[in-house]
Design the sequence.
């Protein structure tokens, strides 16, 4: 098994791999391949941290992005995030994802990436050193600060990096590059149509409930609950059993045991 930088000649193959890995996992179809496609020309994209995993053929991929933390006084500090990360369906749950991620994180650390935050399932990412971002007093945008965001994870790759930057508390918003499919659905549909047809299925375990969807490989943000409203019957509650809350524009749902 080899992990190495992706080459431009592999872009299409890797986008297809991403599409195959994410298809119908979190919602009917997926958009992560379009995110990746668009990110390559995005200044936030970090080509030095754009890795593929090879086992005779390509079986995995991960990319990183520049991001920002917003301090309480409104000033911004550079930070980083990563994803999508994909392992070919035939190779899932065999340890490849963790190997790829650990390798990529070490390379990122060597490059000076001091702190990463991202949305994901702690059940997977804890094996690579991630904890709830609240441990660092980093909040998720559009999520009440006083509530735990169970999907919002972080890691200090360089111990003490946040303190060295003077960051005691901050808020994170995913970079715009992760929302390209939402911003231009027509462009996304046209792009997706260049791949072989695949059926979009609503499957048990997906994050889709009446307008709550995972999009662009990120947690899903869709309006469906009034602020502080009790979760309607049959709708998911959060892991503490409390009703979902909305900070106004969005409600956020994660489901235990699922990646996001
Ligand atoms: C998520 C993904 C990258 C993980 O890679 P992987 O090679 O399948 O995972 P690994 O075998 O390295 O998993 C290591 C451990 O992480 C945990 N884990 C992995 N996938 C998990 C899942 N779907 N749910 C809960 N825990 C999971 C398990 O503890 C696992 O060990 P185990 O299999 O012995 O129980 C891969 O499954 C994938 O491409 N999924 C579809 C796309 C996706 O969801 N990407 C992540 C978006 S945030």
Sequence:
């Amino acid at each position: 098994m080899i992990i190495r930088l992706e080459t431009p000649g592999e872009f299409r193959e890797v986008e297809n791999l991403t599409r195959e890995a994410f298809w119908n996992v979190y919602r009917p179809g997926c958009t992560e391949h379009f995110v990746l496609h668009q990110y390559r020309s995005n200044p936030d994209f970090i080509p030095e941290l754009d890795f593929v995993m090879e086992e005779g053929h390509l079986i995995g991929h991960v990319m990183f992005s520049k991001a920002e933390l917003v301090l309480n006084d409104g000033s911004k500090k550079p930070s980083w995030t990563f994803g999508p990360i994909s392992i070919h369906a035939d190779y899932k749950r065999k340890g490849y994802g963790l190997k790829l991620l650990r390798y990529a994180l070490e390379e990122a650390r060597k490059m000076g990436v001091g702190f990463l935050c991202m949305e994901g399932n702690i059940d997977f990412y804890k094996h690579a050193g991630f904890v709830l971002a609240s441990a660092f007093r980093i909040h998720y945008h559009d999520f009440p600060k006083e509530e735990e965001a169970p999907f919002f994870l972080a890691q200090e790759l360089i111990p003490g990096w946040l303190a060295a930057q003077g960051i005691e508390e901050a808020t994170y918003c995913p970079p715009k590059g992760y929302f390209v499919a939402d911003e231009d659905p027509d462009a996304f549909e046209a792009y997706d149509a260049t791949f072989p047809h695949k059926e979009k299925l609503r499957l048990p375990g997906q994050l889709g409930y009446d307008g709550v969807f995972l999009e662009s490989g990120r947690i899903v943000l869709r309006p469906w609950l009034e602020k502080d409203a009790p979760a309607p019957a049959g709708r998911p509650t959060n892991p503490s059993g409390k009703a979902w809350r909305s900070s106004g524009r969005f409600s956020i749902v994660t489901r235990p045991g699922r990646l996001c």
Q: What stands out?
A: Residues 2-252 form a domain with the Aminopeptidase fold (CATH 3.40.630.30). Confidence is low (pLDDT under 50) at residues 208-260. Residues 114 and 164 are 10 Å apart (CA to CA).
